[in-house]
């Protein structure tokens, strides 16, 4: 099993798909990485040589922010907004949708499970 950026990537999947298991690398970025290194996209991770895995690891470390660093950076950005007490920061603090979505109905992902209000009937 290949370990890249602290993540065990699955060995029986194609390299392009397996790289997406790393937080911060999607399909497009994975395609760019393997194209830059000259690795055929249809090859499986188990077919890669140790040298190719090292090249992939170095390319990711050099050119991309992934895993812990990316999560930390995102958390710091959200914390900065909350400390500024700007509108987006207040929405994060209250656990409501940040990007202008309606909250009268829907928004259950951000608001959590619906809580019944005692004595409220129409």
Automatic annotation (TrEMBL):
<feature type="region of interest" description="Disordered">
    <location>
        <begin position="95"/>
        <end position="122"/>
    </location>
</feature>
<dbReference type="InterPro" id="IPR010979">
    <property type="entry name" value="Ribosomal_uS13-like_H2TH"/>
</dbReference>
<dbReference type="InterPro" id="IPR001892">
    <property type="entry name" value="Ribosomal_uS13"/>
</dbReference>
<keyword id="KW-0687">Ribonucleoprotein</keyword>
<dbReference type="Pfam" id="PF00416">
    <property type="entry name" value="Ribosomal_S13"/>
</dbReference>
<keyword id="KW-0694">RNA-binding</keyword>
<dbReference type="InterPro" id="IPR027437">
    <property type="entry name" value="Rbsml_uS13_C"/>
</dbReference>
<dbReference type="InterPro" id="IPR018269">
    <property type="entry name" value="Ribosomal_uS13_CS"/>
</dbReference>
<keyword id="KW-0699">rRNA-binding</keyword>
<dbReference type="InterPro" id="IPR019980">
    <property type="entry name" value="Ribosomal_uS13_bac-type"/>
</dbReference>
<comment type="similarity">
    <text>Belongs to the universal ribosomal protein uS13 family.</text>
</comment>
<comment type="function">
    <text>Located at the top of the head of the 30S subunit, it contacts several helices of the 16S rRNA. In the 70S ribosome it contacts the 23S rRNA (bridge B1a) and protein L5 of the 50S subunit (bridge B1b), connecting the 2 subunits; these bridges are implicated in subunit movement. Contacts the tRNAs in the A and P-sites.</text>
</comment>
<comment type="subunit">
    <text>Part of the 30S ribosomal subunit. Forms a loose heterodimer with protein S19. Forms two bridges to the 50S subunit in the 70S ribosome.</text>
</comment>
<keyword id="KW-0820">tRNA-binding</keyword>
<dbReference type="GO" id="GO:0005840">
    <property type="term" value="C:ribosome"/>
</dbReference>
<keyword id="KW-0689">Ribosomal protein</keyword>
<protein>
    <recommendedName>
        <fullName>Small ribosomal subunit protein uS13</fullName>
    </recommendedName>
</protein>
């Amino acid at each position: 099993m290949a370990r890249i950026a602290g993540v065990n990537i699955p060995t029986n999947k194609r390299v392009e798909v397996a790289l997406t298991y790393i937080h911060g690398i999607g399909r497009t970025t994975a395609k760019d990485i393997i194209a830059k290194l000259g690795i055929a996209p249809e090859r499986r991770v188990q077919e890669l040589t140790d040298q190719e895995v090292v090249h992939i690891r170095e390319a990711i470390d050099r050119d991309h922010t992934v895993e812990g660093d990316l999560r930390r950076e995102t958390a710091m950005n959200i914390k900065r907004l909350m400390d500024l007490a700007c509108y987006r920061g207040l929405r994060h603090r209250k656990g409501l949708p940040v990007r202008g979505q309606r909250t009268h109905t829907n928004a259950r992902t951000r608001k959590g499970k619906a809580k019944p209000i005692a004595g409220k009937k129409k």
